[in-house]
Amino acid sequence: MAAEPAAAFEETGGGDRRPRHIAIIMDGNGRWATERGWPRLVGHRRGAERVKQIVRACPDLGVDWLTVYAFSTENWKRSTEEVLGLMKIFRRYIQYEAESMSAEGVRMRFIGGRDRLDPKLQSLMSSIEMRTAKNSRLNLTVAINYGGRDELARAAQRLAGKVMRGEVSEAGEDDLEACLDTAGHPDPDLVIRTSGETRTSNFLPWQAAYAEYEFTPTLWPDFTPDHLKAILDRYGLRERRFGGV
Ligand code: IPE
Ligand code: IPE
Ligand code: MG
């Protein structure tokens, strides 16, 4: 029988196994700001600072892939002010982080539908993807205008095109996977959601089918590399079975 997890954690200080790919639903920016009587966008700006810190911490924690949920297909429902403010934060993040990400060996990619985004943002996204394409210390994927159902619908359309052109005959899982925005990326081992909500909000439904989940009450602007380290230690104690025994 396996040791009782909390006791084992005390004894060993955490498991040795590290997740190769973690995905984070960075939630709670709005509440963080509201609690302080500040506009929600202040919380989003703090949240973006946290992303930088967590990105820098990942390689030393043995994480090779980090995928973060920055803006969902449902987030367009928010006020114009909040949406435009978020888009400005994304533009600035890419512009000002480009140098340091290149220098630190971070490869940056984006998932989600791009057509609805401002053309200026789209071109910044493509240029940083190209600029960091040879980096391999950390694979950072940012989900902007991402929705799992939207991604699957777009993938199904691409796959139908391949079938019609005769490039694929009997479409299977691998064929659909090759049409996703994440084609070629490993599946996340662990999905973390901050802010206490215990839902997945349309994030990586295909890719995270066998992921482990961690839900923490900490709001994203308060989430530090130490919080991440504690979660990764707990992950090392989990038994993943993938349907086996
Ligand atoms: C997450 O924080 C960031 C985005 C969804 C863009 P929220 O803005 O959802 O923060 P809460 O959930 O309202 O506190
Ligand atoms: C999920 O958070 C999306 C992002 C973190 C970008 P939301 O705050 O939009 O999700 P719900 O509305 O609580 O499900
Ligand atoms: Mg939220």
Automatic annotation (TrEMBL):
Molecular-function GO terms, alphabetical: ditrans,polycis-undecaprenyl-diphosphate synthase [(2E,6E)-farnesyl-diphosphate specific] activity; magnesium ion binding
Top-level EC class as recorded in UniProt: transferase
Cofactor note: Binds 2 magnesium ions per subunit.
Active site: D27, N75 (proton acceptor)
Binding annotation for substrate: 28-32, 40, 44, 72-74, 76, 78, 193, 199-201
InterPro entries assigned to the protein according to its UniProt record, in alphabetical order: UPP_synth-like, UPP_synth-like_CS, UPP_synth-like_sf
CDD domains: Cis_IPPS
CC cofactor: Mg(2+)
Subunit structure: Homodimer.
Stated family: Belongs to the UPP synthase family.
Functional summary from the UniProt entry: Catalyzes the condensation of isopentenyl diphosphate (IPP) with allylic pyrophosphates generating different type of terpenoids.
Protein's name according to its UniProt entry: Isoprenyl transferase
High-level lineage: Bacteria, Pseudomonadati, Pseudomonadota, Alphaproteobacteria, Rhodobacterales
